[in-house]
């Protein structure tokens, strides 16, 4: 599958792949919790909601491909012009609209889940708590703002946002650009936020590097975000050449959004999977992690601190 070359089969294959992958990793996350005898926390419940919306995005991609025209050329009439009210084309339009709505909320919840997880790990640092709280607030504002913007792209609300339908709509392409650019910026900040704290943990250098690598793997999500942004700019640059074949040339809006949502859930689960590594290498169920890496719990505060006071 290359730029501007898609097929129905590829859309279905991507939809199925990214439907199951995040489910597997969330399952690993729950298994890791069970192995370490820890209860579910706020970050887990947030990721469950992010997973539900990621699944929703995959389902809309499958419906848009099977019952709609996602990744397929529009049906044309005898005059060679596309049939704008063809039922399959309308199904595609509705799936595209639903995917954008769910992805914004799902990405926001997944980012906040990761921030809450990191805030628990590094809870004794006031500076880190402040930074993570600010990022949680910014992410919440980003999520609400772009959810409302997507919902009210046209008024009255409709999934048919293209100008040829004659509705009163915002410039949806400019809104997509703004959403992608700010999405990348927030991901970059989240990715680098924990690194200074990790390298000040009381751990052997090898373990510090391993933990850092798990967080830095978030660059994969940043890479997907940048790719999605690049595809949006490509669509914007070529749209006037293909305005009469929306379902084919705007397919990346749907499937790159789905890929990003799914990978975000997967990568947000990686820092929680250390008990699986310990278990695989001969550890026992219920064996606690080293104190310096153990997720923060207020009931343990009197027993140890994982990060020394100079980090405050």
From TrEMBL:
GO CC terms: membrane
Record keyword Transmembrane present: yes
The keyword Nuclease appears for this protein: no
Keywords: Membrane, Transmembrane, Transmembrane helix
Transmembrane regions listed in the UniProt entry: 12-32, 44-63, 97-118, 130-153, 173-197, 209-233, 253-277
Chain positions covered by the region annotation Disordered: 290-312
Domain Rhodopsin: 28-277
InterPro entries the UniProt entry points to: Rhodopsin_dom_fungi, SAT4-like
Subcellular location: Membrane
Membrane topology of the entry: Multi-pass membrane protein
Compositionally biased spans, kind Basic residues: 300-312
Assigned protein family: Belongs to the SAT4 family.
UniProt-recorded name of the protein: Rhodopsin domain-containing protein
Organism of provenance: Aspergillus kawachii (White koji mold)
């Amino acid at each position: 599958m290359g730029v501007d070359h898609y097929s129905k089969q590829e859309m279905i294959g991507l939809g199925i792949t990214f439907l199951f992958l995040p489910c597997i990793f969330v399952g690993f996350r729950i298994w890791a919790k069970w192995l370490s005898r820890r209860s579910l926390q706020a970050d887990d419940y947030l990721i469950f909601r992010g997973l539900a919306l990621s699944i929703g995005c995959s389902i809309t991609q499958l419906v848009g491909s099977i019952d709609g025209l996602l990744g397929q050329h529009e049906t044309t009439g005898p005059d060679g012009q596309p049939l704008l009210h063809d039922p399959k084309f309308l199904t595609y339009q509705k799936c595209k609209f639903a995917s954008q709505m769910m992805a914004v909320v799902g990405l926001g919840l997944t980012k906040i889940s990761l921030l809450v997880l990191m805030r628990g790990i590094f809870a004794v640092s006031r500076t880190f708590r402040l930074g993570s709280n600010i990022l949680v607030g910014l992410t919440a504002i980003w999520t609400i703002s772009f959810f409302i913007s997507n919902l009210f792209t046209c008024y009255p609300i409709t999934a048919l946002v293209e100008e040829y339908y004659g509705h009163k709509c915002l410039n949806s392409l400019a809104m997509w650009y703004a959403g992608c650019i700010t999405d990348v910026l927030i991901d970059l900040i989240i990715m680098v936020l924990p690194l200074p704290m990790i390298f000040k943990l009381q751990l052997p250098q090898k373990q510090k590097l391993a933990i850092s690598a798990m967080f830095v793997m978030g660059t994969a999500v940043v890479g997907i975000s940048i790719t999605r942004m690049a595809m949006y700019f490509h669509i914007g640059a070529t749209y006037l050449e293909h305005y009469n074949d929306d379902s084919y040339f705007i397919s990346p809006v749907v499937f790159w959004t789905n890929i990003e949502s799914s990978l975000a859930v997967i990568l947000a689960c990686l820092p929680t999977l250390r008990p699986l590594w310990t278990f695989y290498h001969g550890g026992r169920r219920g064996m606690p992690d080293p104190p310096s890496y153990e997720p923060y719990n207020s009931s343990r505060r009197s027993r140890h601190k994982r990060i020394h006071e100079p980090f405050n």
